[in-house]
Amino acid sequence: MTGIRELTVGVLGGTGAQGRGLALRWAKAGLEVVIGSRGAERAEAAAEEVRAATGGRVSGADNEGCAARADLVLVAVPWDGHADLLASLRSALEGKVVIDCVNPLGFDKQGPYALPVPEGSAAQQAAALLPGSRVTAAFHHVSAVTLADLSVESVEEDVLVLGDDREATDLVRELADTVPGFRGVYGGRLRNAHQVEAFTANLIAVNRRYKTHAGLRITGV
């Protein structure tokens, strides 16, 4: 497979905090990035902000245009729009590596909690909706606040990467490694994505209690 620096990375939902933060870091690392949104105008406005901050190669498009132009695509959209968007992009995402970072969470007076997903997880739902794509799961636990703060030069966190396609998970690990401080770590098969997505609720609880932006580190690797 072609090296990550020769590929274009698309970010569906790139105008949201998580998607924009990752787009910012990848553009700063020198990757070519396409920010996607429901409206091309909004996507281009976000791309202009990222270009101004990084001097990087960043453009904007509607989500369909983003999916068509990118070689590998991050899905960073709200959970309630996840299934409909991916179903509509099945053809555009055919044959591509898709990285799902969506966390199906609910919130009530007791705080965040994991929502049940019929397919098992958001990533497994993506795989079911995109049978012609190489679906992986990653970037669930990185703080959008930290990503957006470029004064934090090195983001000292590990990124768990899950999937059933070894070549695809290796590529996503390489993508993680382009951000200073990040380390892509293989985290198992796609069937194990539920607990990775659900753990985000625990991290949110940690962050609220300790007023921080906690991430993960895997020891012994």
Number of helices: 8
Name the overall outline. Answer: globular
Query: Structural class, judged by helices and strands?
Result: alpha/beta
Question: Strand tally, please?
Answer: 10
Distance between termini?
Answer: 25 Å
How large is the share of residues in beta strands?
15-25%
Q: Report the mean per-residue pLDDT as an integer.
A: 97
Low-confidence stretches: none
Can you give the helix content as a percent range? 25-40%
SSE topology string: EHEHEHEHEEEHEHEHEH
Please describe the biggest sheet, giving its number of strands, its sense, and whether it closes into a barrel: 8 strands, mixed
Q: How would you write the strand order of the largest sheet?
A: 3-2-1-4-5-8-9-10
Rg, rounded, reads 16 Å
